[in-house]
Write a structure and sequence with these properties.
With about 35 residues, this protein is mostly helical. The longest helix is centred in the middle third of the chain and has 24 residues. The model has no long low-confidence stretch (mean pLDDT about 75). It contains two helices and no strands. The protein is rod-shaped.
Length: about 35
C-alpha cells in the first residue's frame, strides 16, 4: 500500500526510493555484521 501511495506522488517518489534503498542497504549491512 505504501508503495502504491508513493507512486501516485511522483514529486516525492525519487526521494522516497533513495531513502528506501539507503535504509535497506543499512539494514543488510547490519545483518552482515551480526
Amino acid at each position: 500500500d505504501a508503495m502504491l501511495y508513493k507512486d501516485r506522488d511522483p514529486g516525492n517518489n525519487r526521494i522516497w526510493k533513495l531513502t528506501w534503498l539507503s535504509y535497506r542497504n543499512e539494514a543488510s549491512a547490519k545483518q552482515k555484521q551480526n
